[in-house]
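Re: the multi-chain job from yesterday

Posting the exact lines I submitted so nobody has to dig through the queue logs.
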Amino acid sequence: EIVLTQSPGTLSLSPGERATLSCRASQSISNMYLAWHQQKPGQALRLLIYDTSNRATGIPDRFSGSGSGTDFTLTISRLEPEDFAVYYCQQYVTFPLTFGGGTKVEMK
Amino acid sequence: EVQLFESGGGLVQPGGSLRLPCAASGFTFGSYAMSWVRQVPGKGLEWVSSISSDGVNTYYGDSVKGRFTVSRDNPKNTLYLQMNSLRVEDTAIYYCVRRICSTSRCYYFDSWGQGTLVTVSS
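And the result, structure tokens for all chains:
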């Protein structure tokens, strides 16, 4: 099983600041098969990034993904009020499909 | 617009059974693999099960294998999760999720339902 470890657990930032979220895998993720999902209270989860760096349809370009091997990053270049949420990385290389524990981006 | 609507959640005693339907609309349901993912309220996400677009191939997480069964009715645009021998630790919000696949393999989850809460308690 590929274990994904996200850090930090909580990120306290102000609107306009840059957010950098980390996702580390217990083994190399081949073909960059890593996604990021956003969860906000009362809303369905939303796919942000797939294949490490491709933005899903309708996702603003302030969201970007990067990484390779075992280390991956989601960057939000300038936080908007609607970006305060919980973010999960997820691998789809192999079963069981696994998620990281999540990073909460909260308003400072 | 892709819409996934789960229902069927509720309170059930340990050892009991429950079936969760997920009604899909806004896309050609029979062309997509589907999955179930669950989340203990306030906690992280756990993949539960996946099923191929034609329903032939099914996959399960170790924690539910032998107790849960995923199925689908393509003409009715509905995904199901039959949950038997329920345990307290199965208490969670259950999400229906669409998965993107090619002819050779499947990839990421691209659309999520709002979820239905299952509580297993005596």
